[in-house]
């Protein structure tokens, strides 16, 4: 179960990182993020997307390390609390994406947030081996 959660989490976090970088660079994907009200994000939201990409890369590191699919670059003692925090953040993201007025954002954000929430929660509470 942990390896499957790791694969799903890695794919999800890596996609999220790429997606957020594309938004930060001005790609016309804004309907899929940040409320879905703008095709191309303004400067402030581009900066937020860049920050989100960094969080997604940190999530990928934690998921990879916890599942044994990536290198152990983070202090072991921080991995489970970080995964627990990410599970909580993406559970809130799931609620926000589900409430979005943008259909495209809901179709993209809800499944992605669900995968990230579940994979982080599974790995945060998995048995020894982190």
Write the layout of secondary structure elements.
Layout: H1 2-24, H2 43-67, H3 76-99, H4 103-124
Give the structure's gist in a few sentences.
By secondary structure, the chain is mostly helical.
What would you note in describing this structure?
This protein is mainly α and 130 residues long. It has one domain. The protein has helices spanning 2-24, 43-67, 76-99, 103-124. Helix 2 runs parallel beside helix 4.
Question: Which descriptors would you attach to this protein?
Answer:
about 130 residues, mainly alpha, 4 helices
Kindly give the count of domains.
1
Principal-axis shape equals globular
User: For the CA atoms, what is the radius of gyration?
Assistant: 15 Å
- Can you count the helices? 4
The helix/strand series, from N terminus to C terminus, equals HHHH
Question: Which structural class fits the helix and strand makeup?
Answer: mainly alpha
Classify the beta-strand content into a percent band: under 5%
Mean pLDDT, all residues: 95
Largest sheet: none
For the termini, the CA-CA separation is 14 Å
Secondary structure tally: strands: 0
Low-confidence stretches: none
Measured as a percent range, the helix fraction is over 70%
